[in-house]
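It would be a great kindness if you could assist me with a short task in structural biology. Thank you for your consideration; the sequence and its tokens are set out here.
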Amino acid sequence: MLQAKKFSATGEEIGKVELPEAVFGVERETGDLIIHEVVKKYMANQRQGTASIKTRSEKNGSTRKLYRQKGTGSARVGNRRTVIRVGGGRAFGPKPKDWSSTIPKKKKRLALKLALSHRAKEGKVSVIEKLDFDKPNTKKAIDLMSKISSERGNKLLIISDSNHDIIKSFSNIGDVSMDRADGLYAYEILKCKELFLTEEALKKVEEVFGK
């Protein structure tokens, strides 16, 4: 059974917590391929696909030739919209495109479990007994993170619900991002260097994704 460090609300280490095997102990021979496929599709779904360049037919300007075709000693040219002229259209430029694709729910959930298991095996998962914030307090949040984490890099804090006092306290810390326990996805787990969950969030993760 994998274990994680347990910290108090003030940042002192107070013991160990057993992580649920159904979520943090998942292994697959093709695990890396599954994670790669899911993350690749996730990143593609984030693309807006709104880039657009005007072709020569969409540019403003007359369609008449700039000067007569023969007798000038110069090369033959078309109108001012042609792609070889400054201000003209562009050949084969980007046009709006839908990059999105569907990700099967079972595969997406498996990729999340594999990512969580990977972080757990590295010893990068920790549990906080609770977060005691009765009002937004960024200084208190910074002090807590400095006690429970010694590494530089992105940290992901997972809470059980949308507690606005907690969210506002940690939102001004540049290397800390947050998410709810029932809204996790593989990419954010892989992106972070350390993963922190409250005890309530750990129970919620097991309840939602442990099936």
Remarks:
- The two ends are 18 Å apart (CA to CA).
